[in-house]
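Q: Hi! New to this. If I give you a protein sequence and the SMILES for zinc ion, can you show me the bound structure?
A: Yes, paste them in.
Q: Okay, here:
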Amino acid sequence: MSDHGFAGWAERVAATLFFTLFPADCRICGSPLIKVSRLPVCDTCLIALTPLQGSYCTVCGEALHLPAYIDRGETGRGETGGSEADRVAVETRCLLCQRADPPFERAVAYGSYDGELRDLIHLLKFQQVRPASAVLGRMLAEIIANLEQAMPVGTLFCSTITVIPVPLYTRKQSQRGFNQAEMIARDALKQLSRPKRFDLCTGVLLRRRETGSQIGLTRHQRRENMRGAFAVSDPTRILNRDILLIDDVYTTGTTASECARVLRRAGAARVWVATVARTLKISDVIALPENLPENLSEEVSEDRQRVAAHG
Ligand SMILES: [Zn+2]
Ligand SMILES: [Zn+2]
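A: Thanks. Here is the predicted structure of the protein with zinc ion bound:
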């Protein structure tokens, strides 16, 4: 804890007491709260926190949408886009994952990073509303439970899954007072039916420097920006392990990919990724022809706003 740790703690206790004794307005929609709760969010906003629905890339979790020319059964772009085989391929893997395997096995998310879910994550991260973590942890637990069925866990060496929250840079963590990814991971693990199968492991993956904003960078620039940002302190703790990497938000996937790459290079067997939310870039992926320049493949203006809030 930082030097203003006690003051920060006292302030948080006071704030929690205040909100418990004198419920104010919902911190998301502003409507008056009618019941006492540690979490200053109304039921309507909580009900709006719904899981993703639709078709998603089975590898990276990106939303899939059939290109219109395939939907219409046209051959478009001189290719035989309308065949059944093509449809299946497009529906199961996004074009980016068809081109190259990411360094992780799968990335899954509970919901879309917008609306009430985004607001709730911001309440935790930027306004220190810690009770939000329990709700986010419940969502994460749900998505981990789904993922668990698909994880062929157990290398010859270990039958548990090593859970690693994406670390913050030390200065950022002491400013915030906590790492939201770790907090949400802890809350999620409490909810799982077989918690002994999971082994939370902090302090192994380190963030060696601040990576700054990814806004406006091309994919290539984002990768460069991340280079050397993460390191493994003690490879023996992850050697030949199955890793579940946890973060609050998956935006461009650069952070998750870089962490997975570093973990695997240090000896991890496989890496899965679970986040509470993710940004969806449906239109980018549909429209992505084979030879689109990299800098156009993920960034669109609307997307930049979504990415803006993610450290
Ligand atoms: Zn509300
Ligand atoms: Zn994909």
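A: The chain has two domains: 3-47, 101-286. Let me know if you'd like me to explain how to read the tokens.
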